[in-house]
Write a structure and sequence with these properties.
The strands form four sheets. Strands 3-5-6-7-8-9-10-11-12-13-14-15 form a twelve-stranded antiparallel barrel. A five-stranded mixed sheet has the order 16-23-22-19-20, with no helix packed on it. A three-stranded antiparallel sheet has the order 17-18-21, with no helix packed on it. The protein is mainly β. It has strands at residues 11-12, 18-19, 34-40, 52-58, 69-74, 90-96, 101-109, 113-121, 128-140, 148-161, 164-186, 189-210, 217-230, 238-249, 252-267, 277-278, 280-282, 289-294, 300-307, 313-321, 327-332, 339-347, 350-358. Helix content is 0%, strand content 60%.
Length: 359
C-alpha cells in the first residue's frame, strides 16, 4: 500500500531474563537503489498477536499468495511531478504485479522524522498527483518502547477527464504506539530484536464532481495497522505489515484485511533518471521465457541488458525495434537463478526499464 508505507539488543542474563527494547531509529530507512519485494499472506485465521516485551509472533506457517509488490527507493530527480511536492527529499516507487499499477510516495526524511508529502499515481490513462498541504507523520526517531506519536494531515487533488472535473479533499488523523518487542517468524526466516508499532488512521475523503450529475461522495476510513521492524537495521523498512481497514460509503460498510511480508531486500538496482518510458515484462514472475512490450521506439537496433540485485550484468543481447509500432521481444531467463532482475532496453537516447522476478 503506497500511502502507508508503509528496526538488536542483548538478552540480559539474571535469574529472570528480559529483553531490553531497542528504539526504532533512522537505520530502518533504505538508501536510494534499494529494492524491497513484499508478498501477501493468506489472511484466513491470522491475527496480529499480543503486545508487550519478549513476544514471539509466529507467521511462518501461513501461505504466501505469490502476488508480489515491489518498492524501489528512487532518486528524487527521477520522480514524476516532483514540483507538486515541495520539500520532498525521499521517494519510493511501488509496483503491484497483480494489477501492474505504479505509484510514487513522496517523503521528507530527517534525523528526527519521516513524513509523507503525498502520492502520485502514474496511470497511463489518468495520472494525477495527490499532495498533502499538511504532511502525515509516518515515523519519529528515535521511537522508544511504549512511546507514542500522533498527527493530523490534509490533502487534495483535482483531475479532469472528458469534460468532467473531479476533486477529492482528504482530512485525517494518525496515532502510533510502539507496543511490542521480541522475535518475528516469517515464511522466509526468523528475525530477533524486532519492534512492533500499532497505528490507527481515521481518514475522510470527500469527492466533488463538476460536469456530471453526481452528488458529492464521502468515504470514511478507519484502519488499524501493525508494523514490525528490525531494530538493528539489518533489514530495512517493514518486515511485516498487518492491516485491517473499515470503509463506510453511502451507508455501506466494507472490511478489508491484508498482510504483507518482506520477501527480499537488496541494494544495487537504481532507477535511471532519464527514462523515456517503462516496458511491460510478462509473465511476472517468470519461470523461464519472458516477453517485453515496447512502444514509442525509433527504427533501429537496441541493446538489452539484464542485471541482478547487485548491479552485475547477467545477460545482454541486441534486438531490432520499429517506430510507430508495437515491439514484442522474447527473453530466455531459464538459465538464471531465482531472484529479482532489472531489464534495460537502450536505443540511443531512449531508455526503458522494467523489473522481473525469476521463479
Amino acid at each position: 500500500m503506497i500511502s502507508k508505507f508503509t528496526i538488536s539488543t542483548l538478552l540480559v542474563g539474571c535469574s529472570l531474563s528480559v529483553l531490553a527494547q531497542n528504539p526504532i531509529t533512522t537505520n530502518i530507512i533504505p538508501p536510494v537503489g534499494a529494492v524491497i519485494v513484499y508478498d501477501y499472506l493468506d489472511t484466513t485465521g491470522v491475527q496480529p498477536g499480543s503486545a508487550g516485551n519478549g513476544q514471539t509472533w509466529n507467521f511462518s506457517s501461513f501461505s504466501p499468495l505469490n502476488e508480489d509488490e515491489i518498492q524501489t527507493v528512487v532518486p528524487v530527480a527521477s520522480a514524476p511531478s516532483i514540483s507538486s511536492f515541495p520539500g520532498t527529499n525521499y521517494v519510493i516507487k511501488g509496483n503491484t504485479m497483480v494489477s501492474n499499477d505504479t505509484a510514487f510516495a513522496y517523503y521528507n526524511s530527517t534525523s528526527s522524522i519521516l513524513e509523507i508529502k503525498g502520492t502520485y499515481l502514474a496511470s497511463q490513462t489518468l495520472p494525477f498527483a495527490f499532495p498533502y498541504s499538511n504532511p502525515e507523520t509516518s515515523m519519529i526517531f528515535p521511537f522508544n518502547f511504549n512511546g507514542t506519536f500522533s498527527d493530523n494531515f490534509v490533502g487534495s487533488y483535482t483531475v479532469m477527464n472528458s469534460g468532467i472535473t473531479i476533486t477529492d479533499y482528504r482530512t485525517g488523523q494518525v496515532s502510533a504506539l510502539y507496543d511490542g518487542y521480541g522475535t518475528l517468524q516469517l515464511p522466509n526466516g526468523t528475525y530477533n530484536n524486532v519492534a512492533r508499532v500499532k497505528i490507527h488512521q481515521h481518514i475522510v475523503d470527500s469527492t466533488v464532481y463538476v460536469g456530471i450529475p453526481l452528488p458529492a461522495a464521502v468515504i470514511t476510513y478507519n484502519g488499524t495497522t501493525h508494523d514490525w521492524f528490525a531494530t538493528n537495521g539489518s533489514v530495512k523498512f517493514n518486515l511485516l505489515t498487518f492491516t485491517r481497514d473499515t470503509s463506510v460509503s453511502n451507508g455501506s460498510t466494507t472490511i478489508d484485511k491484508t498482510i504483507l511480508y518482506q520477501k527480499s531486500y537488496a541494494v544495487g538496482i537504481a532507477e535511471a533518471p532519464s527514462l523515456k518510458a517503462e516496458v511491460r515484462a510478462y509473465p511476472n514472475p517468470s519461470n523461464g521465457m519472458a516477453f517485453l512490450e515496447i512502444e514509442n521506439a525509433d527504427n533501429g537496433t537496441a541493446s538489452i541488458v539484464v542485471t541482478d540485485v547487485t548491479g552485475k550484468t547477467v545477460m545482454s543481447s541486441a534486438t531490432g525495434l520499429v517506430a510507430n509500432g508495437f515491439n514484442k521481444i522474447a527473453i530466455d531467463l531459464e538459465g538464471l537463478p531465482t531472484g529479482l532482475y532489472q531489464i534495460r532496453v537502450v536505443q540511443d537516447q531512449n531508455i526503458w526499464v522494467s523489473k522481473i522476478l525469476k521463479d
